[in-house]
Amino acid sequence: MIEIKDHCVSAFQELTKSGPLAMEEQRGVTYKMWDATLHTDSIHRGANQISPATRNACFASFLCAEPR
Question: Most buried of the four, 1, 11, 31, 46, by CB within 10 Å?
Fold first, then answer.
């Protein structure tokens, strides 16, 4: 997880600036990463693979969540 932390943080910063629906800034949203399964080859753990996957997972969880 340490080796992909920078990629996940940059993807998170990018997605909070523009939301999934109307490109609005997200506020008051909490994301928790519980588990991650990484590919065994280090070439498949680069920014081009990790950032879009992180962004898509966060957008999907945002759209499926219920407001509280």
Answer: 11
